[in-house]
Write a structure and sequence with these properties.
By secondary structure, the protein is α+β, with helices and mostly antiparallel strands. It contains four helices and 16 strands. It starts with a helix and ends with a helix. It comes from Mangrovimicrobium sediminis.
């Protein structure tokens, strides 16, 4: 009886201290491994999410810039020097100055550096000091059809000009810049603007605005309720640095043979045929578990992360200017 009792007593005894310690160690290893996998997966997810956000913002910014640059210099087939201003063309509220003036048709693409206070073109006061500011002018490829006289089928004028838009009425020889609300010229046979087409006029200035979260900003010509004015549009948040590299024909033979940044273009703006765009994107918020010690070559500028906690992404594109290249190759 005693032997059976002793056996049952031994068989019902619990874990020993060593067994508990081993079990605890194994459990800790399993839990630690699970935590490590979770933290790593979460960090990888956050990195991927940050990268996607920056990449999407960068692609959108490049798309906006590239689209504008591809249309630069399109004026319906008329040369800049053959464009007149309508006598009733109203002044632009908040207009820029110099080549940046909305209706100054001397140049369709131009850039300058913001000064130490962030001023540029006489209408920008909040750009990142020393940053590139790009001006582009062109006609939107959305022409307004001319009206047709039902009696003699001769094109004479336009029916559907928008009173809140500036237009260029142009044929192959002359162009007239006018407000859509004003009376357009006769485009019938024998007239100065005979068989002219009305094209909506586009004026755009791009720059990076200084602030808590740097952003790509665009100045445009738009209706303000009483007339045409220079208005500001926030385009893409998180664009920290924007630089441009230009390619131009320096020999006059129709080929792009020289490249340089803003300070090297000099008086070659009429010969610009290629523009390379460099953008450095920055996350809107800091992630304090991340330390950015990288350096980024943005065109001719080096930006150092400096150990801060912002994620960054460098993107670039190269745009061939279709219309300017036609001018360059034709010697116009």
């Amino acid at each position: 009886m005693m032997d059976n009792f002793s056996f049952r007593q031994r068989s019902q005894s619990g874990f020993s201290l060593i067994e508990f310690m081993v079990a605890g160690l194994l459990g800790g290893i399993l839990i630690g491994g699970a935590v490590f996998v979770f933290v790593s997966s979460n960090r990888s997810y956050l990195e991927t999410e940050r990268s996607i956000i920056l990449s999407d913002s960068g692609r959108f910014a490049l798309q906006i810039l590239n689209d504008s640059l591809r249309h630069a210099g399109f004026f319906g087939g008329v040369a800049l020097q053959d464009i007149d201003q309508d006598a009733s063309l109203s002044a632009v509220t908040g207009d820029c100055t110099g080549f940046g003036a909305a209706y100054d048709m001397r140049r369709y693409i131009f850039a300058q550096a913001a000064d130490g206070s962030g001023n540029a073109f006489g209408c920008i006061t909040d750009a990142v000091p020393g940053s590139d500011v790009l001006l582009v002018k062109y006609l939107r490829p959305d022409p307004v059809d001319s009206a047709v006289d039902p009696n003699d089928a001769e094109v004479t004028t336009f029916n559907d000009l928008d009173g809140k838009t500036t237009y260029l009425i142009a044929n192959a020889e002359r162009g007239l810049l006018l407000d859509g609300a004003d009376t357009p010229p006769d485009v019938g046979a024998g007239q100065i603007y005979a068989r002219g087409t009305a094209w909506p006029y586009e004026f755009q200035i791009f720059y990076v605005r200084e602030g808590g979260v740097p952003s790509l900003v665009r100045k445009t010509l738009a209706w303000n309720g009483a007339g045409m004015s220079i208005q500001t549009e926030d385009m893409v948040q998180g664009v920290q640095v924007m630089r441009f590299r230009f390619g131009w024909d320096s020999s006059g033979d129709g080929d792009i043979d020289q490249y340089g940044y803003l300070d090297g273009v000099g008086d070659s703006w009429d010969s610009i045929g290629i523009v390379e765009v460099f953008l450095l994107l920055r996350s809107a918020d800091e992630e304090f578990s991340y330390e950015n010690k990288k350096s980024y070559v943005v065109g001719d500028t080096i930006v150092d992360g400096g150990g801060d906690h912002y994620w960054r992404l460098l993107m670039s594109s190269s745009v061939t200017l279709r219309n300017p290249n036609l001018f360059i190759r034709s010697g116009v």
